[in-house]
Amino acid sequence: QQPVQSPQAVILREGEDAVINCSSSKALYSVHWYRQKHGEAPVFLMILLKGGEQKGHDKISASFNEKKQQSSLYLTASQLSYSGTYFCGTEGFSNDYKLSFGAGTTVTVRA
Amino acid sequence: NAGVTQTPKFRVLKTGQSMTLLCAQDMNHEYMYWYRQDPGMGLRLIHYSVGEGTTAKGEVPDGYNVSRLKKQNFLLGLESAAPSQTSVYFCASSYLVGTGISYEQYFGPGTRLTVT
Fold first, then answer.
1. For residue A55, is pLDDT > 90?
2. Nearest to B58 among A40, A47, A98 (CB)
3. Mean pLDDT throughout A22-48?
4. Measured between alpha carbons, how far is A41 from A51 in angstroms, rounded to an integer?
């Protein structure tokens, strides 16, 4: 079952912050975050494992609340290069190494 | 090191025709995946493989078949194409970190398929 992402789209000015949420109805082992630029392949940003950890990638960070089965991606002091569609991918405890991806959140950063 | 490559990049088929999409990776990854991406739907898993000679169904397997005869290649077949299979198809590969944690997926550049 696909996780639910919100919002569907967000428009930012350079330097502004944004939060993208990913929510699942099933227990999660890990959450992955990917970014896809228009016309390109998705690119891995980070993976968060159960344990409530928080990770970062430049000024992009994420948290994982396993009890709530939710993850959030934080875009801090956004840059033009942050534009793209962000996908969360969730992995359950079935031990089959496959992800269910959300529908994506399109981020547009304007100068 | 080419990473993940996909052949072809573009294809137009008529309804009822068949074709095979080829995915190749040179990173010695165990796991390989085929996704389709449609507007507003994100990435949906079609089939995947956890090793040479093994395949499994994903979320949307109907109308597709796969084979993984060699570790580095993962083929996606459409036996009788339908307009509903018009989509962008992405292949990905991944490897298992020693402690049993699946790790990042590396995606190929995609194949844009149109079925008329």
1. no
2. A98
3. 93
4. 29
